[in-house]
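Why run this: before we spend reagent on co-expression, it is cheaper to look at a predicted model of the complex and decide which construct boundaries make sense. The entries below are exactly what would go into the expression plan.
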Amino acid sequence: MKDYTYKKYATDELMEVINVFNVSPESRAKIRAIVDQDPVQPDAGNFFRYYNPNSRTDAFEKMVCEKTGSKYALAVNSGTSALIAAMVAAEVGPGDEVIVPAYTFFASASAVVVAKAIPVITEIDETLTLDPAAVEKNITSKTKAILPVHMLGLPSKMNELRAIAAKHKIKIIEDTAQAFGGKYKGKYLGTLGDIGCISLDAYKVIGTGEGGLVLTDNEWMYTRAQSFHDAAACWRPDRYARERKPGELFCGENYRMPELCAAVGIAQIRKLDDINARTRAVWKQLRAEVKLPSCAKWVESNDADGVCGYVLGILFETQEQAVTAIKANIGLGGLASNAQGVRDWHVYWSWEHILEQKTVTREGCPFTCPHVGKLPAYSQDMCPKTKNIMLRLATTRIIPTYDADWAAQFAAKLSADLKNLFKGA
Ligand SMILES: Cc1ncc(COP(=O)(O)O)c(C=O)c1O
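The model came back. Tokens follow.
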């Protein structure tokens, strides 16, 4: 009998995946010849995690749990999806307020709006993360959650924020998009609140091209995140069964992580600790060896042993000094900022979508929702402390291939350049 097995994904597709890695035509020809001698197996479950006994997404999630100590990990298709699923898991909804830092990528605030709640934009301090005193001031009877963001791989003040959350009986949703593998007091960031969100996009510590993770120890929150991320309910042990508990089934999205992305994640997570250890070591060496002028200081750190260390931040006394340092192209490759005179989605004063309440429907939901209390006084000047800090900040990037020799060279060059630039300052 003729073999009617349908291999939807076979050698041609495998070769295209190999192509993503920019393999040379010669190598591709060699790989093709080898694979043709021993053709790929029929695909198990159409690259679909729930019908694939060899699911790469399952394997990746298991590795994430083992690495971080989180009881549950749910792989999704972006950090933004992770945040929205986490909001739903935490039962954030109409009328609720969520405290978000004034310095974060816009997705942190956007996720709150997508979850039909109100983002309360709140000051950061000189650690570039949420200022606990400002958080406490912004808490109202409508506050449902605090969303600390570990910007640039820098841990937030989690002990203080956890104490505030416990006092007011509200949730902590950690935005760990920029800090996967970082730690606070020895515990992985993303596992210190009620639920944590990771981004695996192209520019993060590790990546899957696009992707994200939701981490939690709470079974019910995990269940709700699963429900939301897979409205088709394929995640359920019995897909079409009636809900086992009220709140288990509701209209959701399709935020499932593709199997191909999970496969990349498996290779990447094996490297996570090594990547962070390398950048952290250089970050520490630079802070020990670079001689700053008296008009500058390091960005404060809430846990120097837990930073990811891929960005080194210097805070000048004035914006003018920061601009002078950035324009002078000092060090090796210069210093940068995403706050000076440019529109940038990382600083709240560029978030016109929220400041001017631009929404997907004419009715202006969720800002006009009858459940909403008093709206925050949204304006470009609502967080003057954050604006001042961000305008005094200059940063430089540290990549995992840099080593102690590079750091020593960079420290000598940057120290000399700064001395030259700020004579007498
Ligand atoms: C702090 C922060 N939160 C959320 C996100 C969103 O992640 P993604 O790009 O994977 O949707 C990002 C991405 O840049 C981010 O930096």
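The chain has 14 helices and twelve strands. The longest strand covers residues 311-316. Bring this page to Monday's planning discussion.
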